[in-house]
Specification:
elongated, binds histidyl-adenosine monophosphate, alpha+beta
Length: 472
Amino acid sequence: MSEGAQKKQEKPRKFQAIRGTRDLLPSETVLWNHVEQTAHAVFGTFGFGEIRVPIFESTDLFARSIGAETDVVSKEMYTFGGFAEFSERVRGGRMEGMLSEMQPEEMVSLRPEATASVCRAYIEHGMQQLPQPVKLYYMGPMFRRERPQKGRYRQFYQIGAEVLGGSDAPAIDAEVIEMVMTFFDRLELQGVQLDINSIGHSADNCRRGYVEKLKAALDKVKDKLGPDSQRRIETNPLRVLDSKVKDEQDIIATLPRIADHLCEECAAHYAAVKHELEMRGVFFRENWRLVRGLDYYMRTTFEITAQGLGSQNAVCGGGRYDGLVELLGGPPTKGIGFAIGEDRLILSLQESGKEVASGEWRVASKERKGVASGRLGVDVYVAWMGERAHATAIRAAKDLRKAGFSVELPPVEQKFGKALGQADKLGAKYALILGDNEVSEGLWTLKTLADGSQAKFTEPDLLEHLRRQKAL
Ligand code: HAM
């Protein structure tokens, strides 16, 4: 076989999204955008400003903040970097003296979360000089190399918020939680359950003392626990409380509880947070086993679950992290925040049959056809025939778009029958029919596709008519 023929026979590889990543298609991004816009609106009313931090940072930033021993840092980060200069020189053929001069480049990691980055930015931009506290929120992709399953991805999205600086008044903890709950309420998320706990602070008369007692109690029952929990007794005994293994639940129920070992200040802080939540009408459940998987937490921790998610049902996690900014080289700074798993939030909304809230003219359910076709909420399909009509159609599309309507303008002339069929397929609300007659009369035909009715309008009347319809 000739080389050419052989090449022809080889089928090009079909690429697929990498395991644990996925495409979000227009039929879904409507809801994603709605969720994100609601976050901008709700968080804005609580005085939060948006921050955008890089997708990758120094590996060390995450190791120091989240903790080198945590699953996130020790197993799940996408880390790269190294000898960039080396490969550049090899490519350029400039190898002399290379080994002696070569400096390893700093390793970098795709961000597995954004709290560390926000604290880094707070320090880097001297935000402690601003009126305190500084209230920031963010949204965007995060990366963790976890085993993919429903609601768990390797590239997932978070919407998070952090309050940095100022005091650690319990009212701040409560307001941050109130803000997430208000956001979920606005989205009509179903089956929302807020769990809270206090994990005290790192001192002998508080968490450290408790962890010693916990470890001693765990050592006694070690043989009855599975391999993961056995390992955690050594690396991080608190995480044993997180275990979902069925056979371990009865044993865990007998372990000492942190609430009985908090120091006076932490106990008072926790009691005040609960009181502040009650004053805000926020319902919560105390969960002494809620310890969270990242090292930077102290005192208040919380998690929110929602319905329809199976085992990965946490839609939000957060807590207080007063020592973190200092740990990263900044001044002593109080901090508290949360992150919502946006993928899970969307899944839960979809499972409960939530469409984008009614009243959104562009994405009302009637336009589902359009959504499925990938063209969202086409308002006007411009069906034109003839050279003069073409010029008018271009002008009409420009004016309608300027007025905020979504317009589909076919690039080539089509018979009206075909054009109307196409408009229907796209789920357009109206077809604007422009032929020679319409152009010479200066009267344009507007067809309402839902009921097939037609009416003629002058150009300004048409715009006015559509505006009035949109306002209904
Ligand atoms: P986290 O609990 O690791 O906390 O993550 C927060 C939320 O992100 C989880 O509750 C979950 O909804 C979502 N999430 C985490 N991993 C995945 C995944 N592989 N796939 C889909 N969703 C996922 C943090 O990240 C902290 N930075 C939160 C925080 C902010 N604490 C204080 N400030």
